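Hi there, hope your week has been kind to you so far. Do you reckon you could talk me through the fold, stretch by stretch? Thanks so much in advance, here it is.
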Amino acid sequence: MKLLVLLPRFPYPLDKGDKLRAYYQIIELAKRHDIYLFALSHKAVGEAQVEALRPYCKAIHVERLPRLNLNVLCTFFQGQSLQVGYWTSHRAKKAFDEFKSQVQPDVVYRQMVRTMMYSGGGVLDYQDALSLNTRRRMERSHGPLKWLLRYEYKALQRAEQQALHLFDATTVISSIDRDAINQSIRQSGNQAITLVPNGVDTDYFKVTEFQSDKVTESLSHSATRPLSHYTIAFTGNMSYAPNVDAACFLVKEIMPLVWSQIPSATVLLAGADPKPAVKALAGPKVTVSGRLDDIRSAYASARVFVAPMRIGSGMQNKLLEAMSMGLPCVTTSIAATPLGATPWEHLLVGDTAEEIADLIVKLTIEETHHSIADSGHRFVQQHFSWSAAVAPLEEILNS
């Protein structure tokens, strides 16, 4: 079939979760369908980025959005979501309509409610519940930011509920996100939201394909100590609020408790665009690497992976990647539950600084370290291939 894919960001490089999800879905769907990609972008998209998608797409259109989008003011005064407004422009809508008219697709598949104002119907992938993500941020914020996030939380709730009636079908990444979208409209009856999880490229994320010399080469520009000395790694886009919060939580609250028992423990914070708050965490025992050419170098350099997420929503790709690389993982309930993994079998789960620090220390015991790492690796291998993850989506698109 002809499948028109509408994305709020160009899906390459793979430095954000929504881009990674779209990229691998396109690769999988392109095996059986003709893909026509229309991507919005607030940043310039280079030819090398486009070339990364060209083998999988019959046609690609990138529509540049203004960074200062006055449509946000209009949506605010109308009580609508600021995110929806920021990703919508009259010029982009016209360009999309022209592209759609040329393609004449069988189905339009779009990602996130940020694209809901563009015509075409079809299937909407919520990805995760943006309202849940915003509510969790709101609960940890103060002052004017808390007020703004409260506004956006309510507006996103309305947008997510409206989307149920605008599109023929909707998908979401986990049951937690599905419940968050459905919770306020249960009395009026729900349109079924299909679960479409993320996957992981287990052929790419495996330590046997990534030897120590490659680790050294990838991290040499930023590392200040032998790579084998990293006790803990945490990865992610370091401009994304949930990752910034997790990095600060790890270094400021968790690590002092770890250092009281393991003074030599070291931390690697790896990921693109670190905010000043993340850069300020760097020190003798903490390396902030910035963007890495190959994120596998971060996983391969550490003994334990820690994802102390306190806000956010959806499924954490970083955990899937780390488990696929054979790293024992420590995370919070917020991040562990969407995976469906079993605590103390596939990974370790704690929510307070004391609990997480204690689990990190426990993983220094060889038997615990290897059993968790091996079990987590097998769990990801069995349940999170991209072909299996895309299957329920393709069934919806075919119908």
Q: What stands out?
A: Confidence is low (pLDDT under 50) at residues 212-228. The domain at 207-383 is CATH 3.40.50.2000 (Rossmann fold).
